[in-house]
Structure formats: structure tokens, C-alpha cells
Design brief:
Low-confidence stretches: 191-203
Oligomer: single chain
Strand order of the largest sheet: 5-4-3-6-1-7-10-9
Radius of gyration: 17 Å
Order of helices and strands: EEHEHHEEHEHEEEEH
Length: 203
């Protein structure tokens, strides 16, 4: 079965954007851009909310026509254009570029999407991610931790009533100091927490 993969950049103090939606603190170089292309190309679909989708759709469909754009960004433009996309919105009625619009997150429909053949499914946007987390629909986390403290803004993860156990499956350090932390759900850890067992993962 395909996995839902939350793929987001985050500051060291846990924010994914500044108080005015700033992301100018992101440290992205050609190494990371090529890595993103390699990862996203393997997805079978991309899921996002309306705001994220409209930001992407405002630039990427024709970005590779810009003669000043770098090769990695031009490559991503083609990947994004051709990738099947699902946008969750109650106000958006239509979207182009292989995009399906659905009004809300229905867990049964997401599980049916996961059961279809194809690559894993990329999830972007903190608000949509919070909804997926609420329904226990996220299977894997790929967090790109940028070496900066922005002090305030919007946190990536919402408050929760109970801890969620995760298992580290990959780390990677990029030359610009960004670190990839890839986690999968660890249901055994959740069970230990529920029974009051102590954890050996205090770091």
C-alpha cells in the first residue's frame, strides 16, 4: 500500500513559516534542489490545500520558460506540471495541470487512494497536515531542518492530546547545514506510551 509522506521544511525552533508567511529564511542550494527533484519524481501524487496549490500554480507551470532559471528549478517545473495533484478546498471549483479538487479530507477516500497502484503520495502544507494527522493518515515524515531560529511564526505541528511514536529511518546532512530527518510511525512506541512503559529514545 502506498504511504502518505509529509515533506516539509522547518526551522530549528519548529516553525515552517514566519508570522507573515515568510520563508526567506530557507537555505536551499543546488544540492537540495536536485534532491527534491529526485524525491518528488518518485511520488504518485501530491496533496495540498488551496493556498499552497495557488502559490505553486502561480509560478511553476511556466517557470522553465524563464531563461534565468537554474536547471534544477526548470526540471522541477516539468515534474510539478505532470504530477497528479489533489487540492482540498471548499472554495476552489476547478484547477488545471492534472489537478483534482475535493472539498474535504474523508479518511475512507484517502485510504482508498493509498490502496491504488503507484508511488507514495506527497503531502504539503501545515493546515492540511494537521487534518491528516488528526485522522492518523500520515505514514512518514520527511523534515528538512534549517539551521536558523526565526523566533516566531506558525508551528508545523499542532498541539496533541497524546504523543505519537516515531522511528528514525534516515538522516542526511546537506552542505548548507540543512539536515533531513526521515521518520516512520512507530506503533510499538505508541503502545508502550499507552501502557506507561518508559522509552529508551530520550535524546
Amino acid at each position: 500500500m502506498r504511504k502518505i509522506v509529509l515533506m516539509m521544511s522547518v526551522s530549528l525552533d519548529g516553525f515552517f513559516e514566519g508570522p507573515n508567511r515568510e520563508i526567506d529564511w530557507h537555505r536551499v542550494n543546488s544540492e537540495m534542489l536536485q534532491h527534491f527533484n529526485e524525491e518528488i519524481r518518485q511520488f504518485g501524487a501530491l496533496l495540498s490545500g488551496r493556498v499552497t496549490h495557488e502559490l505553486m500554480a502561480a509560478y511553476w507551470p511556466t517557470a522553465d520558460k524563464d531563461p534565468g532559471i537554474g536547471p534544477e528549478m526548470a526540471e522541477f517545473a516539468a515534474i510539478w506540471r505532470n504530477m497528479p495533484k489533489v487540492v482540498f478546498s471548499r472554495t476552489l471549483k476547478h484547477a488545471d495541470w492534472h489537478t483534482t479538487v475535493v472539498p474535504e479530507v474523508v479518511p475512507e477516500e484517502i485510504r482508498a487512494l493509498k490502496a491504488q497502484p503507484g508511488g507514495d503520495i506527497g503531502l504539503g502544507g501545515a493546515d492540511l497536515a494537521a487534518e491528516f494527522l488528526r485522522h492518523d493518515l500520515v505514514d512518514q515524515f520527511r523534515l528538512y531542518v534549517h539551521p536558523v531560529l526565526i523566533g516566531r511564526g506558525k508551528r508545523l505541528f499542532p498541539e496533541s492530546e497524546a504523543p505519537t511514536g516515531l522511528r528514525l529511518i534516515e538522516t542526511r546532512e546537506f552542505a548548507n547545514g540543512v539536515v533531513l530527518l526521515r521518520y516512520a510511525l512507530d506503533h510499538a512506541a505508541d503502545t508502550s506510551a499507552d501502557t506507561g512503559a518508559s522509552s529508551s529514545h530520550d535524546t
